[in-house]
User: Fold this.
Amino acid sequence: MQPSIYDVCIVGAGISGLSTAAFLQAAQPELQLLVLEESPDPGGAIGTYSASGYQAEWGPHGFLDNCEESRMLINMAGLDAEVTTAPLGEFVRYVCLDGRLRCIPQKPLQILKEPLIPMRAKLRVLADLWKKPLAGEPSVAQWVAHRFGNALLPFADAVYTGTYAGDIERLKIDAVMPGVRELERQHGSVIRGVIGKMRGAGRQKNVKKKELPSMISFAGGMARLPERLAAGLAATGHLVCGNGVYGLLRENEGWRVLAEQGEVCCRHLVLALPVNPCLKLLAPALPTMPPPLTAIPEARILSVLLGFDARARIPFGFGYLAPEQEQRFTLGALFSSHMFPGRAPAGHQLLEALVGGRRHPERLELTDAQLIEAVYRDLGQLMELPEPPHFTAVLRPRSGIPQLEAGYTGLLEWRKSVHAAHDQLHLCGFGWKGIGINDMTKEARQVALRIGAQSTKGEQHEVKGVYF
Ligand SMILES: Cc1cc2nc3c(=O)[nH]c(=O)nc-3n(C[C@H](O)[C@H](O)[C@H](O)COP(=O)(O)OP(=O)(O)OC[C@H]3O[C@@H](n4cnc5c(N)ncnc54)[C@H](O)[C@@H]3O)c2cc1C
Assistant:
């Protein structure tokens, strides 16, 4: 069989693959483009669940509206009118401390103004001004304790439980906060670095004071974004689902892609896959450039949905997170019906509780009934909940969350050398340089620009905001 020939073949139709295709099509509509997806449906980790008038998420619940690439994508998908927002400035988050929910300011430095930690611990934070940068590959916990003191560890734990479902003793600071590490190295202190950046921004004319961003989703849930992007591609035959790729061969003019439904030849190959499936597929095709790791750890979580009538006293806000030192069953919960409209039937409320993560994979083995009971008991100690819940369900997502632990920065260096050696091969996706949707859309645009041989922003590390 003579294989088909394309300018670009994208493997994976999660948000990374779909956004790469959308950016490419917008810039170069003449490109012969094909997206191959192994599952029957596109979207990858993104999926929306609906039952009995409740609407919840299998994966991401939203993303911040401070990313130009994601905004462009929403517009290209024709979804501007369906956006729903929850501004960080109006909604609060809670951290469970000493068995009760404590309201946390959205900006980390404001934590110092609140009576959340003792005065001595607040003064210890200033030691950052003269602490030397830690050498080697410190964990997030080692780094926070060294620069700011142990009192801030529960807050760091909450941040990385909420984003990575991770373990701050294992996540590496250089991997999860490369921009902050760079500030630390340049200025000898994070506080000095942040002040310097703020002064620099203040000196620039016409720079508006940065407002807190909003969390965004869509009226029909997060699935609307991949649905709309995929519909456009499928209608023109650019997307084939249920067609997994099992092999890759390097050829003179590009790549030969071996897929379940046949072979495809392409000039540019984009692997828009999470790190582990990417390494599995690519390593045999690059025998002279073996990756330093064959796989990275993943954290799996599940959600327990609890629906209540108006009697439930759920505090107003996004939700809460529980640091490990609290020894609770639930990692945290989203107060979903506060965040976005239409998540529960009229007069009802929805909680989405998260269980498992890097530290407690054993909890994922429990039955639905055991999980619902344990979560209900746990949350019932933190807020007033009527018995029994009006609605319950357990969602067990397939996707794990890549953990940026020991050796990860070496893996990123390997990716750089692969890109340098193969200018027609492009690796992006879940766990490559970030794990959030905005990280994926930024990388997708960079891939599209590289393919279009346009100038890119380069490999600078941005300093990301930390929001609870
Ligand atoms: C439980 C959970 C909660 C999350 N919450 C948030 C959140 O609140 N906010 C946020 O910003 N981000 C969140 N994320 C992260 C976000 O979901 C990811 O950043 C994003 O979905 C990753 O997209 P991707 O396309 O890179 O990878 P994926 O979504 O994994 O897509 C990869 C696709 O490739 C396909 N594929 C794999 N192997 C092959 C093959 N050999 N051939 C063909 N196709 C293949 C897969 O089937 C899949 O469709 C969460 C993730 C999870 C798992």
